[in-house]
TrEMBL record:
It comes from Mesoflavibacter profundi. Gene3D superfamilies: Homeodomain-like. This is Helix-turn-helix domain-containing protein. InterPro entries: Homeodomain-like_sf, HTH_AraC. Keywords: DNA-binding, Transcription, Transcription regulation.
Length: 273
């Protein structure tokens, strides 16, 4: 098996500038300078234009990628396992991953944000190239962690705006917001009904009216998304995940995961090999 570089930084004007199969091996970061790029993400059409930032996880459902004749962007490619093995904060990682899987394009409203992103690109790439450093592996891993923290800080305004919208929205939107921030530890409908000062029966009515999905099923959907991300993180053992999700025993956690995913935690991880 041929080793691929952990980090690639390139200026891109056409598809031929990108490595073959980059979507399979790399987490893709794109800072667009001019022109536009069209693509489909999970079957939905998107257009990236000047001052937009695009992020795709490796193996994302991206098709129909097209660059305009005047397209120019700086692209940072980070090998998927290298990035995921250096995630510095698990709770933020889950929020970022779920947000990015639903919103692949972020518009950078401030010039300084775009400048910071490009500086972060260069710092990580420069550290990757400095292979004579006495503590190369250690410092490269630290730089990857710093890169992620800086990027999350830049994007926090976008996350917070979305959360404020949900938090002050309709009863249904407030329920979804509460589930998104509490479902790792709270999985009962009554908890959310009390938060919203309504009965569980009325909360189910509100959910069915807005989405035809019960409150319980919404909670399970949110938990399932996070469970999958946690189980795919090889740096966490199953007991640590059980503790993070506030289960009283490993056996109870195993039964819950089996009910949600159709597999025990160990069975699910074995399928990833």
């Amino acid at each position: 098996m041929n080793l691929i570089p952990k980090v690639i930084l390139i200026e891109v004007t056409s598809l031929k500038d990108l490595p073959i199969s980059f979507l399979t091996h790399y987490q893709t970061h794109i800072s667009c300078h001019s022109g536009h790029a069209d693509f489909k993400f999970k079957g939905k059409s998107y257009t990236c234009k000047k001052d937009d930032f695009v992020f795709w996880f490796a193996d994302s459902d991206v098709t129909g990628l097209f660059f305009s004749s005047n397209f120019k962007a700086t692209v940072l490619l980070v090998e998927k396992d290298f990035l995921m093995n250096n995630v510095p904060d698990q709770s933020w990682s889950i929020d970022v991953q779920l947000y990015s899987r639903a919103h692949p394009i972020l518009n950078l409203n401030f010039k300084e944000d775009k400048t910071k992103i490009l500086i972060n690109f260069e710092r990580l790439y420069d550290m990757f190239l400095d292979k004579k450093h006495l503590f190369y592996d250690e410092i490269l891993n630290l730089q990857m962690k710093m890169f992620l923290l800086d990027m999350w800080n830049i994007f926090s305004n976008s996350f917070n705006r979305r959360n404020r919208t949900l938090q002050s929205g309709t009863l249904y939107e407030r329920f979804l917001y509460q589930v998104s921030i509490n479902c790792m530890k709270e999985r009962e409908v009554n908890f959310y009904a009390l938060k919203l000062n309504i009965t569980a029966k009325h909360l189910n009515f509100v959910c069915k009216q807005n989405s035809e999905i019960t409150a319980s099923d919404w909670i399970k959907r949110y938990v399932k998304e996070r469970l999958i991300l946690l189980l795919e993180n090889k740096s966490l053992n199953i007991s640590e995940i059980s503790d993070q999700m506030n289960f009283s025993s490993r056996s109870f956690f195993t039964r819950y995961v089996k009910n949600i995913l159709g597999f025990t935690p160990s069975e699910y991880r074995n399928r990833l090999k």
